[in-house]
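Whiteboard transcription, Tuesday session. T.W. wrote the C-alpha cells on the left side:
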C-alpha cells in the first residue's frame, strides 16, 4: 500500500526565552494545526479532528472532551503506523522543560501506542514511553499526563510524536490526544483547560452559569485566582478562593455571576482564568470562548425517547415499563417511540438506522436491547430515564414546533403541516425536521407477537407486574404501545427543511402527505 505523508506549511513564531509556553495546541480546528504533520498507511486520513461523536465509535469509545485529535480503527484499513508529529521546537534556551497532554487509549493486544521524541527534526526517533491504558483502563476516559523533558534542554530541533499501531488487526480501537503543551514552569501560572455552560440557549434576562477547569502549572501552590466572562459589551470579574491547588493539579470552578443574554441573539463569551495568588501569569492558555444564544421566550419542549426493542428480547419488557412510567410522569412533555427489531412490528429503515446509531453511541460496545436514544442523541438504559430525561425536558431550545393534520378516511390520505417558529438568531445551521407516526395498543395473534420475559418469577426483582407473568407471554395477553409505523425522512431528517440563517420569530412550514396503511388503527396513531 502506498505510504502517505501529510504536511502543513506554517509560520514560525519566535518565543522569547522568558516565555513559559514553548508549544501549545488545543486541536480546536477541523484540520491538522499549522506545523503538525502525520505519516499514515490508512485510507481514512489517519489522525483526524472532531468531537467524541465524530471521532468515537462502539469499539473505540471516547468521552466528551471538546474538539480533539484521534485515530479510530473503524475504517477496516491499515492503521499499523499512524504517526502524529509536532512542529519543531528550539529548547536550547530552556532548562526545566515539561510536556503535558491528555489522552484516551485502551492498551489491548495487539495495539501499541508510543510517545516518541526526535532531537534532529524528525530524521530519527526514540521512544519516551510505551503508553498504558488511560484512566486505569476505564473505557473512553481521559488521563492527564505530564512528562519531564528537561534532559532534552539544549537541543534546537526537537519534535514530539505519537505513534499508534493496530498491530495489523484491521478492526481494533484507537487513540486520542488533546491539549498538548510543552512549557517551562513559572512560579505562578494557571491554564484554562475547558469551559462549560449550563445551557447553550437561555431566555432573555435569565442566567447561564459558566464553569471551567484549570490546571496549576506554576511551581507554587495557589489558593486563589480571578475568573472573568466578557461578551464584548459587559464583563464580570470575580475572585475564586478557598481552595488549595498544588503544581500540576486540576480543579473545577464556577463563576459566581451568571451571564444573562440581553436580546434574542448569539453572544460570543470570552472566559478567562488569570492572576493566581494575585500574580501576573503567562496568558497564552488562560482564555477560551463559547457561543450562547438569547431567546425571546422559552418554548415548551418535549423529550423524545426512541426505544430499541423486540418481542424476542426477554429484557425488553423493562423498556415497556419505563416508557409507560415516563408517559405517566410527564404526559405533556414526553414522547416515546418503540423501534421494533426482528418481529412483526419492525419498521426496517428505522430499525436499521437505530441499530447503527446504537453501535456508534453505546460505550459498552455495540447495540443493546432494550436501550434508549434520548433526544435523538444520548444513549441510556430505560431504567435511567426517570433520573436523566427531566434534564432534557427542562432544556431551553431556540424554536417551537406546531403540528396541523387532516385525515381523509375516504382516500386513506393524511396531510400534515409542521410549523417551526424560531426564537433566536441562528447562523450557519443545518436544522432538519422529521415526521414519525406511532401506534398504540398494537396486537397480533401469531406467536411472533409473544413477548419473551426475563423477569418471570421475580428472580430479578419487580418489573411492573411482569415478574408475575410467564417467560413467554402469549400474544393474547400482550398489547404494544408507541410502535413506530412511519419514518418520513430517515434517521437524519429532511435536508434543507430550514434556512441556514434565521432570526427571532421567523417561521418555516414543511408539508407531508402520508398514505395510511389499512392495517393501522387511525384512532390509535400519534
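and on the right, the sequence the group agreed on:
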Amino acid at each position: 500500500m502506498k505510504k502517505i505523508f501529510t504536511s502543513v506549511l506554517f509560520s514560525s513564531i519566535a518565543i522569547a526565552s522568558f516565555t513559559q509556553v514553548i508549544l501549545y495546541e488545543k486541536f480546536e480546528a477541523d484540520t491538522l494545526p499549522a506545523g503538525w504533520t502525520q505519516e499514515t498507511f490508512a485510507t481514512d486520513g489517519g489522525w483526524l479532528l472532531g468531537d467524541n461523536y465524530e471521532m468515537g465509535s462502539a469499539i473505540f469509545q471516547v468521552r466528551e472532551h471538546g474538539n480533539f485529535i484521534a485515530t479510530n480503527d473503524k475504517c477496516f484499513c491499515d492503521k499499523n503506523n499512524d504517526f502524529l508529529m509536532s512542529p519543531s521546537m528550539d529548547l536550547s534556551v530552556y532548562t526545566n522543560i515539561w510536556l503535558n497532554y491528555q489522552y484516551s487509549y485502551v492498551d489491548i493486544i495487539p495495539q501499541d501506542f508510543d510517545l516518541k521524541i526526535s532531537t534532529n527534526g524528525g530524521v530519527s526517533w526514540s521512544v519516551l514511553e510505551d503508553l498504558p491504558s488511560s484512566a486505569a483502563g476505564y473505557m473512553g476516559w481521559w488521563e492527564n499526563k505530564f512528562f519531564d523533558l528537561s534532559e532534552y534542554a539544549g537541543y534546537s530541533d526537537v519534535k514530539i510524536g505519537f505513534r499508534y499501531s493496530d498491530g495489523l488487526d484491521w478492526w481494533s480501537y484507537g487513540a486520542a490526544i488533546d491539549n498538548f503543551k510543552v512549557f517551562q514552569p513559572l512560579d505562578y501560572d494557571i491554564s484554562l483547560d475547558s469551559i462549560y455552560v449550563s445551557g447553550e440557549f437561555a431566555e432573555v434576562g435569565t442566567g447561564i452559569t459558566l464553569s471551567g477547569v484549570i490546571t496549576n502549572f506554576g511551581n507554587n501552590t495557589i489558593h486563589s485566582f480571578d475568573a472573568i466572562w466578557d461578551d464584548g459589551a459587559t464583563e464580570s470579574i470575580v475572585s475564586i478562593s478557598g481552595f488549595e491547588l498544588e503544581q500540576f493539579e486540576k480543579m473545577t470552578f464556577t463563576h459566581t455571576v451568571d451571564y444573562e443574554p440581553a436580546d434574542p441573539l448569539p453572544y460570543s463569551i470570552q472566559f478567562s482564568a488569570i492572576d493566581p495568588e494575585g500574580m501576573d501569569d503567562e496568558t497564552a492558555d488562560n482564555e477560551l470562548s463559547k457561543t450562547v444564544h438569547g431567546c425571546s421566550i422559552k418554548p415548551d419542549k418535549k423529550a423524545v425517547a426512541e426505544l430499541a426493542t423486540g418481542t424476542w428480547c426477554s429484557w425488553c419488557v423493562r423498556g415497556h415499563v419505563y416508557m409507560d412510567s415516563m408517559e405517566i410522569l410527564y404526559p405533556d412533555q414526553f414522547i416515546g417511540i418503540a423501534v421494533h427489531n426482528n418481529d412483526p412490528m419492525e419498521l426496517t429503515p428505522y430499525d436499521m438506522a437505530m441499530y447503527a446509531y446504537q453501535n456508534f453511541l453505546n460505550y459498552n460496545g455495540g447495540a443493546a436491547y432494550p436501550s434508549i436514544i434520548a433526544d435523538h442523541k444520548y444513549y441510556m438504559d430505560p431504567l435511567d430515564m426517570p433520573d436523566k430525561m427531566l434534564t432534557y425536558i427542562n432544556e431551553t431550545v431556540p424554536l417551537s414546533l406546531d403540528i396541523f393534520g387532516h385525515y381523509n378516511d375516504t382516500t386513506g390520505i393524511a396531510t400534515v403541516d409542521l410549523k417551526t417558529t424560531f426564537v433566536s438568531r441562528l447562523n450557519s445551521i443545518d436544522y432538519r425536521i422529521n415526521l414519525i407516526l406511532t401506534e398504540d395498543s398494537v396486537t397480533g395473534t401469531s406467536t411472533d407477537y409473544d413477548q419473551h420475559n426475563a423477569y418471570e418469577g421475580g428472580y430479578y426483582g419487580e418489573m411492573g407486574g411482569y415478574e408475575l407473568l410467564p417467560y413467554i407471554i402469549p400474544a393474547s395477553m400482550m398489547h404494544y404501545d408507541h410502535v413506530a409505523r412511519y419514518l418520513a425522512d430517515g434517521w437524519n431528517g429532511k435536508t434543507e427543511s430550514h434556512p441556514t440563517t434565521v432570526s427571532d420569530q421567523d417561521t418555516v412550514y414543511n408539508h407531508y402527505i402520508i398514505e395510511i396503511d389499512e392495517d393501522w388503527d387511525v384512532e390509535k396513531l400519534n
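Someone added at the bottom: Confidence is low (pLDDT under 50) at residues 1-19.
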